[in-house]
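Homework help thread (please don't just give me the answer)

Our assignment gives two proteins as sequence + structure token strings and asks us to describe the second one. The first is just a warm-up. Here they are:
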Amino acid sequence: MKEVESDMLTFDDERRMYKIGELAKELDRSTLTIKKWEESGLIPVARRDSRGWRCYTEGDISKIKEILKIGRASCRERV
């Protein structure tokens, strides 16, 4: 696996890694909210790059979106 450093946080030539700010924008949430979700166990703990920054794959983002979708559906059922 060839490691590469760039703005896109690519750890290898085949998989793009997203920063927490990019995830926050995709989910229309703040980075603080995502950190709180992680701390509370709502979403899986993010992997970290060599600088300690949280980073996410497209697969991670899909899983987080699915978790949030299930959470919203669960809340609707309680109403």
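The one we have to describe:
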Amino acid sequence: MAVTTTQTLRMRFRNEAGSIVTLSLDNPRNNLTAADVQGVMDLIIAKNVFVTSGGALVGKVDASIVDRTTNVLFEVSS
């Protein structure tokens, strides 16, 4: 039985329509700080990197690192 653990950096923004937009990145570096993430989020907003169906990203909501553990119960091999 295999056990795997993965991490995802989840950054949530608000767009012009007021909706929340999530940008997720797999395997963030281990020494990532809140200041690093806030700086990147500010840059994404300032440079208008992403435009959504609800318009440009206009504000930060939050950011978190999500840890996910997967326990494989069985696998059928061909």
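TA reply:
I won't write it for you, but here's a hint about the kind of observation we're looking for: The helical segments are 34-46.
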